[in-house]
Amino acid sequence: MADGTATTLGLILLTASLVAMLTRRLSIGLVAAGYGLGFLPQVLTIPLSRDLVFSVFLPPLIFEAALQLKWRAFRRELPATLLLAFPGVVIATGAVALGVHFLLDWSWIGAALFGILIAATDPVSVIAAFKEIQVEERLSLLVESESLLNDGAAAVGFGVLIVVAAGGSSSALMIAGSLAWTIVGGIVLGGLIAALLLLVAWRTDDHLVEITLTTIAAYGSFLLAEHFGMSGVLASLTAGLLVGNVGWRGAISEHGRDHVLSFWQYAAFLANSVIFILIGGHEATQPFAFFSGAAVVAIILVLIGRVLAIYPLCLLLFPTPLRIGLRYQHVLVWGGLRGALALALALALPDSIPERQEIIVVAFAVVAFSIVVQGLTMPWLIRRLGLQLR
C-alpha cells in the first residue's frame, strides 16, 4: 500500500510538472491530465477524502493566498468584500437550496447543506488567468479577498447546519453563540498563534527556521481551530495576513523573506496539483449518465445563485466610494469558481444525510464545470470587457 501511494504521488508530481511546462492554464490542464490517468487501472490510488483535503491541502492554499494580500488594500476593500462574502453566501445558499429542494426533491437539510458548501468559491484558476493577461490590481484583489472570506463564511455556515442536522439546539441564541465562537474564535486563535511564532522568529535570521515557523502558523492555526470547533479557514487566513504584513517588518529577516515566499508558492502549487489531478481522476470513474440531469440543474442553480449574490449587493455599494463597476461584477459572477473547500465539505457530510452520495457526485460535477468551462473562458471574458492592462 505504501509503495503504491508513493508511486502515485510521484506520478502526480511528474504530471503536474509536465502540465506546468506545456500550458499556462494549469488547473484546467491538471484536471484533464487526471481525467486521463483515471482510466488507467491502479494508477491514481490515493482517494480524495475530507481529511486529506482539510488536514493537508487547505491550510497551505489559504495561508499562501493570505500571505500575498497587502493589509492596507485589503482593509480598504474590506466592507465590500464582507458584504459580498457573508450576505452573498446566504443569498447564494438560499437560491441553490430552494432550487434543488423543489426541482430535485432533496430534503430541506440536504438542500441547505449542498447550497452552503457549493457557495464556497476558489480563485485559483481566475488568479492564474489574471497573471497571464495582467488585469487591474483592484479587480484581482476583490476576487481573491472575496473568495477567501467567502470560504470562511461557507465553512462556518456548513458547521452550524451540521450541528442542526445532528439534532443539536437550533434556537436563535444557540446559533448566534455558535457563529460567534466559530468566527471570532478562529480569527483570535489564528492571530495569537501567528503572533507567538513571529516573536520566536524575531530571534533568528535562519530562513529554514523561519519557513518552519510559518509552516506551524499555517497548519497549527487551522488544525487547532478545527479541533476546538472554530473556523480553521478564518484562523489560517488571519495567520497568513499577520505573517505577510507584520512579519515582513522585522520578525522575518529580509534575507529569509524570499525563501519563505518561494516555499509557500511551491506548497500551494503542490497542493493544487494533487487536488486538481485527483478531481480529474475522480470524474473519470463516475457513471455520467447517472448524475447528468441533477448536475445540469445544480450548475444552472449555482450560476443563478451567484448572479443574485453579486449584482444586487454591488448595487448597494453604488452610492459609496467602494462602488464596483458592472464590468468587475461580470468577472466576479463568472469567476466564482468552485474548488477544494466545496469538495472537502461535501466529503465531510455525515451518513445521516439522505442525499449524501448524490450531493458528493453533483458537487464534483459543479467543480469540474467551473474549473474547465468557466476557467477556460475567463481570459476571453476579461479581454472582451477590456480589463487587461496594456
When the domains are counted, the total is: 1
> Mean pLDDT score, rounded?
86
State the helicity in percent bands: over 70%
The portion of residues forming beta strands comes to under 5%
Order of helices and strands: HHHHHHHHHHHHHHH
Number of helical segments with 4 or more residues: 15
What secondary-structure arrangement, pairings included, does this model have?
Elements: H1 2-22, H2 26-38, H3 50-68, H4 71-104, H5 108-117, H6 124-133, H7 137-165, H8 172-201, H9 207-227, H10 232-245, H11 254-284, H12 288-317, H13 326-334, H14 340-347, H15 356-384
Helix pairs in contact: 1-2, 1-11, 2-11, 3-9, 3-10, 3-11, 3-14, 4-5, 4-7, 4-12, 5-7, 6-15, 7-8, 7-10, 8-9, 8-10, 9-10, 9-11, 12-13, 12-15, 14-15
Tell me what the structure shows.
This protein is mostly helical and 390 residues long. Helix content is 79%, strand content 0%. It has helices at residues 2-22, 26-38, 50-68, 71-104, 108-117, 124-133, 137-165, 172-201, 207-227, 232-245, 254-284, 288-317, 326-334, 340-347, 356-384.
In short:
The chain is mostly helical.
List keywords for this structure.
390 residues, mainly alpha, Na+/H+ antiporter like fold, globular
